[in-house]
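Field reference: "sequence" (input) and "structure" (output). Example, Glyoxal reductase:
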Amino acid sequence: MLDINSCAILNNGVKMPWLGFGTYKIEYENASVDYIRKALEVGYRHIDTASVYGNEPIVGQALKESGIKRNEIFVTSKVWNNKHGYDKTLKAFEDTLERLNMDYLDLYLIHWPKKLNKETWKALERLYKDKRVRAIGVSNFKVHHLKEILEDCEIAPMVNQVEYHPQFQQTELKEFCTKNKIQLEAWGPLMQGKIFDMPLMHELATKYNKTIAQVALRWDLQTGVVTIPKSINENRIKENCDLYDFEISKEDMEKIKNLNTDIRIGHDPDTITF
């Protein structure tokens, strides 16, 4: 991981930048285009969105206005829970492309596990075979959800995007994904701001002369997890990608590991009602 252009290699050989820019709650307004454009200006080449975020048109507009070639940017979106099922998922994908004003995606994910996981996954396999998307995967899947997909799929998931941060390290899931060559990706890497309340992170930020966010994101990368921080502050957008001039020591990595409590910040995939 030499710089922001460094990539993880997915199980189908596709390169996915280790660091991406998250767009959750960046809603439809003129300033939102500026946030994404700023991220592209400072070097991000991986943008994560979803249909439920309501900002796919913003992402598409920002990418178009950036002047950067489409094949130089890794774009992810996700199918929402009310669009599960084979036919609904295919239609949802077409709607996403239309909103993004693109003719393909780099990664398409099932946003949350639901009863129609298998039918929805068959639709993603179809999109992949038809070369409408370069990689397919899931989001918020636990081990038992992944096993359900893997038991009879033609194409194994390439990515699992989940809540992952020092307080919630998902050790069993991470080991399962590694064993099955599924790249783990972190959402909420800064614990929705709660990471700034952790004394150890303050201590390490001082030690490495970095921000708390930079230490947390560097920890993600050193654990082999793709990460997608989100910010609407221009300085933080730049700071969050300045991760390549330091390395956290093994001793300090172990200290961060010991912060794990297995307590989520977000929803439990087994109990969601949306």
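The chain has ten helices and ten strands.
The chain has one domain: 7-257.
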